[in-house]
From TrEMBL:
SUPFAM superfamilies the record matches: Bacterial luciferase-like
Keywords: Oxidoreductase
UniProt signal peptide: none
Keyword Zinc-finger attached: no
Name of the protein described by the UniProt record: TIGR03885 family FMN-dependent LLM class oxidoreductase
Amino acid sequence: MTRFGFHASHEQIAPGALLRHVRRAQEVGFAAAMCSDHFAPFGTVQGQSGHAWPWLGSALAVTEFPIGVVTAPGQRYHPAIVAQAAATLTEMFPDRFWMAVGSGQALNEHITGERWPPKPERNARLRESVEIIRELFDGGCVTHRGRVTVDRAMLYTRPAKPPPIIGAAVSAETARWVGGWADGLITINQPVDQLRPVIEAFRDGGGKGKPVRLQVHLSWARDEETALRLAYEQWRPAILGSGIGWDLAMPEDFEQATAYVRPDDLRTHVLVAADPARHAQWLREYADLGVDEIFLHHVGRDQEEFLDVFGTEVLPELKRQLS
């Protein structure tokens, strides 16, 4: 049966508050959590960007369910450092930590001052990074000179069982590629007829039998007008997609690129509704695609009321329908 998790958005909410939210998510019935890993927010109105990795240690310590992160080894993070951080968390919290890896966004990676590579090169760098991380998890002493350089790196603290490495993909093309090397897939919500081919491509590319995770951006409020306003103010950059959004470097760039977006344009990217039953219906449609875990990202900043309402009205209904 599909599990439902809470997404902690570091771009929007300070880490101390997010720690309270993830603990509350467990209390109201969510079965897992995940978080983003940004250096900068998508826009100045979001206004936050805490470091994901120290937060993960705290979040795992104050909860009992699994928690994952979407990160990008290769530029801002050296893969050996990612491997060390992941191994440490997994040693402390066995079978509870997972990480998803992607090729990154200029928004976060440009800070090193290195050239921002085109997508095929970023994918090749990601694949190298994953191989390095896995070799380190296996106890190897790694020297590598390619798109990433490693000199005699070795992990002296390793968990009994390494964490899974999930591949992040939005398009069917990338999902098919991910299926050949990742331990699972994580993607984002799209209309069902567009999301289905992404999942099928992952399975056809070698991902059959591997778990599929889905991050769903949604906006809920007591009235529809407020829910739509929150989506527009907080998550307007979602409309850009990967083709443009991956190459913008500054929060202000996202604001300029979406200056002429209309609020209703967001409805295909963010599930906007005041009725909890409508959200339950949408989530059921995603679950019916065979998704193993769905992580709910309420794009508004009032996470407490969202958690209480969805814990009371949405999660029980979904459990009833899917049981």
